[in-house]
Amino acid sequence: MTSPITAPVLTAPLDIAHEQAAAATAPGVLARCRALVRPSLAAAIDRLHPWTGEMAAFSLGWCGVGGTPDSGASEGKGVRQALAVLCAEAAGAPGESAVAGAVAVELIHTFSLLHDDIMDGDGTRRQRETVWKAYGTGPAVLAGDALFALAVQTIAEAPGAHTAAAVRCLSGTLSGLVHGQAEDLLFAARPWTGPGAVRPAEYRAMAELKTGTLLGCAAALGGLLGGAPAGTVAALEQAGRHLGVAFQAVDDLLGIWGDPAVTGKPVHSDLRQQKKTYPVIAALAGHGPTARELAELLNSPFPLEDTAVRRAATLIEAAGGRVATLEEAGRHLDAARACLSGVPLAPRAAYEIEMLLAFLLHRRV
């Protein structure tokens, strides 16, 4: 599952790419891309009203409430911005050519987190208060709106001959993201079992929209701004969408079994909120006694206490929900690799994308 991309259409032998990137690690690649994008991202945030800019900087882990320094704050991994940079490099262009796209997708990602935290009622993210908890619901909505507008402005002002196509890509992504979020919210009102229950295929379609569209957009923008031909851009976008489904699957695992020191949320957090995530849906899809006991537990009219939450996590694993979710992630990563293997990519960037795929599957699960 973690073998490197070996397409015969690569523009140089893959062993050269291995040799060039031998000292690289996925965290190192992410850090390199963040460092490349950070000055332009900071300059974009500086264009905001000082108050919404402060909330944006807080959400990015750059400062504390009131704009005070916060050396303990954690920034995100920057997967989306890294994917934009790497896909431009994979197209044979310098990573700098994709910086406007990387900034735009990071702004959209941050906007979506601000609004998602409000809709989900999540009070913590990355081991500290979410923006709506720290500043209030109205200000957090406003900050999200400001980031949304800034993302569109950023991509519309991107230099080069592909700006119009990049704007179309981002606008289509925004529609897909909102569609996916709507489906996710509607899932909460559906029963755990019976004819109205959420099925794995429905959840997969939602995850592709909610998470996959933005990763696909990041990859496509990198290819577009890097001057890749249409077929390569389409393959990069499809690979990103598959990566998004895999990424969501791993997030679902972390939401139940993740280390709070890594996730910034209490253990079993998704179960406590009774979120319909892939491990639970996959476990309930079985018809054995373990699945039936899990259904009875989740269908209780009372909130799940600590003992019930721990029991639910045990039942989900015993019913195969954890294994099924890892298999789901693996299938979509393999599908992403298949998309990438059919187009000509610069070897080093292809290798670094491959490292990123493997890293995302195995992050503390």
Explain what you see.
The protein has 365 residues and is mostly helical. It has one domain: Farnesyl Diphosphate Synthase. 68% of the residues lie in helices and 1% in strands. The protein is built from 17 helices and two strands. Strands 1-2 form a two-stranded antiparallel ribbon. It is globular and about 60 Å long. It starts with 13 loop residues before the first helix and ends with a helix. 48% of the residues are buried.
Number of helices: 17
Q: CATH superfamily membership, which one?
A: Farnesyl Diphosphate Synthase
Order of helices and strands: HHHHHEEHHHHHHHHHHHH
- Helicity range of the residues? 55-70%
Tell me the distance between the termini.
15 Å
Largest sheet, in brief, is:
2 strands, antiparallel
Structural class: mainly alpha
CATH fold naming? Farnesyl Diphosphate Synthase
CATH architecture: Orthogonal Bundle
User: What global shape is seen?
Assistant: globular
Question: How many whole angstroms does the radius of gyration measure?
Answer: 20 Å
Primary descriptors:
365 residues, mainly alpha, Farnesyl Diphosphate Synthase, 17 helices, 2 strands, 68% helix, 1% strand, globular
Write the layout of secondary structure elements.
Layout (H helix, E strand, L loop, with lengths): L13 H8 L4 H20 L4 H10 L19 H12 L8 H22 L3 E2 L2 E2 L1 H5 L1 H20 L6 H25 L12 H26 L4 H28 L2 H4 L5 H4 L5 H7 L4 H10 L7 H13 L2 H21 L5 H15 L4
Antiparallel strand pairs: 1-2
Describe this structure in a few short sentences.
This protein has 365 residues and is mainly α. The chain is 68% helix and 1% strand.
